[in-house]
Design goal:
With 328 residues, the protein is mainly α. Helix content is 43%, strand content 8%. It is built from 12 helices and 6 strands. The strands form 2 sheets. The chain has a 3-stranded antiparallel β-sheet with strand order 1-2-3, with helices on one face. It has a 3-stranded antiparallel β-sheet with strand order 4-5-6, with no helix packed on it. It is globular.
């Protein structure tokens, strides 16, 4: 029988020890979280029963997933994936294995749901481990992408109401809108990586696993400086005290309600990133290459959604259409 041994001073991880179907196990789970360790234990049992128990030292999905999360990777779907792949060697995770996991975990899910909850996070974990796998996504997984954004006066009103609710929250929204940072990037921002006098911020870790520099417009500098003067943060620590939690999303909904603005369905803080990119294109004149050059995107395809916001010269030829010349 396999059992979990608690972390000790010399080993901060839970250890699986015992025998299952004649197979002796004495292995660290490489995690200090008991709930994850329990899932890894159950995976060890399933692997032994299937005759595919990984040899000691061979990298497993659990190893790769924990390293991925430690580096700031999105963990929303990882724990459920550990139930299926926890002790599976990375070398054995292929198209067939991922297809089977998607059906096991989400038997009634839509193609887009299975893609989002299984294919995308598994691919991200493998890429982080240095493995590139050309996955066939479920048919119908890629729906037409909708890009919602706000008008300038809407942004101004929401930020004003947010600031009245909580000065730090208003500063956070200001930063998101003026820099295009993702929420996680902004929440992880530390004062040691900010130089207000140089209008500069540095993100050591991003969603793309690449560091990047961020330009801080004057309005962002002013908001951060005012917030800093209030003494709410410790120099060298995180800029914002918030974490990704329900209260943060409640503040956003409350700010929008106070501003009498209905947020587009299915949007949240990423709306400000879309708005930044759209306004960069619409008002600041940034073209496709210009948006890519900001470093906010790695994939050129991702910025094409913002190209629709500017009326090009060809469309303006409609001014020369015959008829109705006296209208208006």
């Amino acid at each position: 029988m396999l059992k979990l041994l608690p972390p000790r001073r010399k080993n901060p991880s839970w250890v699986v020890r015992g025998t299952h179907l004649g197979v002796r196990v004495d292995r660290s789970t490489r995690t200090g979280k008991k709930e994850i360790a329990q899932k890894i234990l159950r995976q060890f049992e399933r692997d032994i029963e299937r005759g595919v128990f990984v040899k000691a030292g061979e990298p497993t999905f659990a190893d790769a997933a924990l390293a991925y999360m430690k580096d700031g990777g999105e963990r929303t779907y990882i724990e459920r994936l550990l139930e299926v792949f926890g002790g599976t060697p990375l070398s054995r995770i292929d198209q067939a294995a991922i297809d089977a996991a998607a059906m096991e975990l989400h038997p009634g899910g839509t193609p887009s749901n299975r893609n989002r909850a299984v294919y995308t996070p598994v691919s991200a974990v493998l890429r982080h481990a240095g493995i590139t796998l050309s996955l066939r996504r479920p048919r119908g997984a890629h729906k037409a992408r909708r890009t919602s954004w706000l008008w300038p006066e809407q942004v101004e009103t929401i930020v004003k109401e947010a600031t009245e609710l909580d000065a730090g929250f208003g500063t956070l929204l200001t930063l998101l809108y003026t820099t295009g940072m993702r929420l996680g990037e902004a929440l992880a921002l530390c004062w040691k990586n900010v130089r207000l006098e140089q209008k500069y911020a540095y993100l050591p870790v991003t969603k793309n696993h690449q560091s990047r520099s961020v330009f801080l417009p004057k309005v962002a500098v002013a908001a951060l400086r005012a917030y800093q003067r209030e003494g709410r943060m410790l120099p060298g620590g995180r800029v914002f005290r918030f974490t990704k939690c329900g209260r943060l999303y409640d503040l956003l909904r409350a700010s929008a309600a106070a501003a009498e603005i209905e947020l587009p369905t299915g949007t949240s803080f990423h709306l400000f990133r879309h708005t930044w990119a759209t306004h960069m294109r619409m008002y600041a004149g940034a073209d496709e290459q210009g948006l890519i050059a900001t470093g906010a995107w790695k994939d050129p395809e991702s910025v094409k959604r913002y190209m629709h916001t500017v009326i090009d010269d060809e469309a303006r030829r409609a001014e020369h259409l015959p008829g109705l010349r006296k209208a208006g």
